[in-house]
Amino acid sequence: MIDPVDTRLPVSEAVALKVQYSSRRRNCLGRLTTTTIRAVDGVDLTIRPGEAVALVGESGCGKSTLGRALLRLERVSEGAVRFAGSDLTGLSEAILRPIRRNMQMVFQDPFSSLNPRMQIGETLAEPLLVHGLASKAEARARVAEILQIVGLDPAVAGRHPHAFSGGQRQRIAIARAVIARPKFVVADEPISALDISVQAQILDLFEDLKERFALTYLFISHDLAVVRHIADRVAVMYLGRIVEEGSPESVFDNPLHPYTQALLAAVPSPDPVRERSRPNPVLRGEPPSPATAVTGCRFRGRCAHAMPVCAMADPALARGADGTHAVACFLHHQ
Amino acid sequence: MTGFSNRFLIGHAVGIAGVAIIVAAVAIAVFAPLIAPVPASQIDLHARLVPPAFVEGGSAKHFFGTDNLGRDILARLIYGSRISLAVGTAAALLGAVIGSLMGILAGYFGGRVDAAISWFVDVQLAFPFTLLAIFLLGTLGGGFYAVVIVLALATWVNYARVVRAQVLTVKVQDYVLAARAVGVGTPRTLWRYIFANSTAPIIVVASFSTAQAILTQAALSFLGVGIDPSIPSWGAMLNDGREYLQKAWWIATFPGLAIALTVLGVNLFGDWLRDRLDPRSAR
């Protein structure tokens, strides 16, 4: 799937990746039943150096799980996860630990992602110290430097997280993710828990850091306007599978998959005339539970264009003539 | 703002009161020979069951009265603090260390580790403790250290259960996953992330386990398997006074008050310590 033009080694790569959770419980008759949740159900994704890839989709579609699986914070059920060319799939936590300095994560909720019992200076120094990248004195200087970069006063290093607002905490969490100069950062809805007024600042910070540290990142979001603003490439996820992928311009201005079209149609328009003519509701029904096995196309139950072939075969993600815009839909497969 | 600082000061005062009680009790234990009016085991058969000085028929010679052998209650209380405090603190601390460690391992690692530790906890809770204590002390022989170990074995399950429950809620927090994402190793994660966020229930259990240990030590002495009952301790005095409760209430009442006061001090101190250790509360 690697673009023939770009021969650089991908930073992060998922190959036919599946992440499943099994839970065994007794049903009402006392029989043991196994439920398998297919959170990520066959994803191919390649993230190249310097790219900001956005992953969009509704809640529960598996985008967070995919993000964590790329960092091997999830167990891989099938397929493979690679980082800078090396296979992480079966590695134990002990072997992964030294690799982790190169790949970091920013969590959605800044109120739960910082240890309340540690001063933020300690939290920020931790990536440097556990990987032996700096002495304690050097770490202190690096912490002051990174606090300045993310727009906080270095004097606050001695405080605990409770003393900060949500936006400030997210700056701290971002600082922790970049202080060891990682190659790859997964940001899991890093602004959706924040006030609107703070969201823009945090986005600007991401842009700034991307330039400053030549970061490659996966930005998980359900806010399409945000994605358009920051992403170099967009992947649309539905029920554990990527259904459309391409540049923000091609995906947003020329959405091919009916699901992407529905998502875009659901974005409220600031223009009242256009807003009134927006179809409502745009998408009927709920996505099927990831615990049920789907045959054929997973979107067909909610799709306005469902055809007989959709019930028989599962459409693969296939690239169009331009070689970048890909879609998993029989409407566009020849 | 004033409400906030008032609450803070009241909390402070309560903590200082707790510390004051504990310091006083420890001072009494350490300086017992200097404070006690008479030796604790001095028997005066002419002055049996003398009531306290402030009660009719009491004598100024025996401020808290005497017991059935004419021994001075005040002197016995002062000397008794030595065994009671030492046993209570040592057993509660040892139990806390063992129980917290087991609770953290069970809660964090889950699976077989959890099954094994929880099995031990359940077995011990199901097994009558007195029987176990008699068996262990019978094999180990009595004495201070044996009693402390046995009492720690009695209390560690309390810690293990609450710590395990706390760890189950702490370990799914994002900050623990964040630690893993950063590359923090397991020992450091357990110490700085899991343990550091599970201390509140440990302190609460420690304050009531201290009281439990003081009382159980008395019961063991009473059964003749613990510390030699002729060495005064508050628990032993409580037991001695029980049969005279109708005739001479003071024998059991004063050691009971001493235990209650000490436990109160430990509780006040524990509450204050828990709040102080929580960075979210006022500093």
Task: Characterize the structure shown.
The complex is a heterodimer of chains A (334) and B (283). By secondary structure, chain A is α/β, with parallel strands linked by helices. Chain A has one domain: Rossmann fold (3-Layer(aba) Sandwich). Chain A is built from 11 helices and 12 strands. In chain A, the strands form 2 sheets. Chain A has an 8-stranded mixed β-sheet with strand order 6-7-8-3-9-10-12-11, with helices on both faces. In chain A, strands 2-1-4-5 form a 4-stranded antiparallel β-sheet. With 283 residues, chain B is an all-alpha fold. Chain B has a single domain, classed as MetI-like fold, CATH 1.10.3720.10. Chain B contains 11 helices and no strands. Chain B has helices at 2-30, 32-35, 73-109, 111-126, 129-140, 144-170, 174-182, 186-195, 199-223, 234-242, 250-277. In chain B, helix 1 crosses helix 11 and helix 10 (234-242) packs antiparallel against helix 11. The longest helix of chain B has 37 residues, at 73-109. Chain B is elongated and about 75 Å long. At the A-B interface, helix 2 and helix 3 of A face helix 7 and helix 8 of B.
Question: Which protein chains are joined by the largest interface, and how many residues does each one contribute?
Answer: A-B, 26 and 19 residues
Number of strands of chain B: 0
The level 1 CATH classification of chain B is Mainly Alpha
Termini separation of chain B comes to 14 Å
Tally the structural domains of chain A: 1
**Low-pLDDT runs of chain B:** none
Subcellular location (chain A): Cell inner membrane
Keywords (chain A): ATP-binding, Nucleotide-binding, Transport
Main location (chain A): membrane
Domain ABC transporter (chain A): 17-264
Topology, element by element:
The complex is a heterodimer of chains A (334) and B (283).
Chain A: E1 12-26, E2 32-47, E3 52-56, H1 63-70, E4 78-83, E5 86-87, H2 93-99, E6 103-106, H3 120-130, H4 136-149, H5 166-178, E7 184-188, H6 196-213, E8 216-221, H7 224-230, E9 233-238, E10 241-246, H8 248-253, H9 258-265, H10 272-276, H11 308-312, E11 318-319, E12 326-327
Parallel strand pairs in A: 3-8, 3-9, 6-7, 7-8
Antiparallel strand pairs in A: 1-2, 1-4, 4-5, 9-10, 10-12, 11-12
Helix pairs in contact in A: 3-4, 3-5, 5-6
Chain B: H1 2-30, H2 32-35, H3 73-109, H4 111-126, H5 129-140, H6 144-170, H7 174-182, H8 186-195, H9 199-223, H10 234-242, H11 250-277
